[in-house]
Amino acid sequence: MIRSLIKEIRERKDEISEPVRTIYFGGGTPGLLDSDELNAIISAIRENYAVDDNIELTLETNPDDYSDELKVRSWKEAGVNRLSIGIQSFREKDLKWMNRAHSVEESFQALDLARSLGIENITVDLIYGLPDMDLDEWEHQLDQFLELEIPHLSAYCLTVEQKTALNKMVEDRILSPANEEMQAEHFKLLVEKLSKAGYEQYEISNFSKSGWRSRHNSAYWSGEMYLGIGPSAHSFDGKQRRWNVANNQLYIKALENKEEYFDFEELTAKERFNEFLLTGLRRVEGVSLDELFKIASPGSDFNSNLEKFTQLGWIGPENPENQIQLTFEGKLRADYIASELFIV
């Protein structure tokens, strides 16, 4: 797998001409990489691409990846300067039904170890709308996060996907996720408490202290180009979207035999309009109508829907520099608002 990743890195070096500003090891379990493997991949990137001196280099990990202090030291020595830690919950019973391999205590130990080794740029994931989690329980979760003084939080509402173990437990009434009203209350409390604590909600699900936004994820939401390496990885150059085969063995075999291992699609102006709108509405800056209308002309109902959402208080009445921005009530309905403004 490592050889195949490096081969793809080399083969695609001409696709990026500007200096690489962010590198993100994520999806799957990159925390399993040993120091030699991690160094081999990062070295290949530096050998084949111009890399910004102020690179943001993130590694996605789980608390159970921290059993060996030497491993965390090797990550730092390889150039990792940001960690995304999948804590998910500070309740043991949640971690058990999620089949997480770590405990709450291991979450705290992972954070302590990373900081003791000088890695301060840390983000953690938490999930709200969990089964049997009332407002007091969720507030306790947020209080525990705030006590840790971590500079960044990604908080996501629980979604129940078809054909998953969670969906089966819900169908069998073993678990009952929070209803929409409780999910909305969780979200409201999340926004209020983190705002009061000095965090900026710079994207619907992401909160950071000043100067600690994720540069990598911000690039996705801003419509910047990105290059994805490895099985299932997606790439975007502004107009074309490309994705690699998901199966590990097929990916390795195709690269070894110089066979095609990806598919792609050319996005239409309509699709680029809708995507720019969808991601932009999630950002605190909102969407520039001037930039949006450069991509394509809006649908016939765009202006009337925009006026309707403004009257409902879902889009702010004050639009600096022709921007549209969601209010708190609008953020609760972001996907619906975007879909109503889409070109269809």
What class do helices, strands and sheet pairing give?
alpha/beta
Rg for CA atoms: 21 Å
Tell me the series of helices and strands, N- to C-terminal.
HEHEHEHHEHEHHEEHEEHEHEHHEHH
Query: Between the first and last Cα atoms, what is the distance in angstroms?
Result: 41 Å
The tally of domains stands at 2
Describe the structure.
The chain is an alpha/beta fold and 344 residues long. The chain folds into two domains: 205 residues, Transcription Regulator spoIIAA (2-Layer Sandwich), CATH 3.30.750.200; 73 residues, Arc Repressor Mutant, subunit A. Helix content is 43%, strand content 18%. The chain is built from 15 helices and twelve strands. The strands form three sheets. A seven-stranded mixed beta sheet has the order 1-2-3-4-5-7-6, covered by helices on one side. It has a three-stranded antiparallel beta sheet with strand order 8-9-10, with no helix packed on it. It has a two-stranded antiparallel ribbon with strand order 11-12. Helix 2 links the parallel strand 1 and strand 2. The chain is globular, with a radius of gyration of 21 Å. The two termini are 41 Å apart.
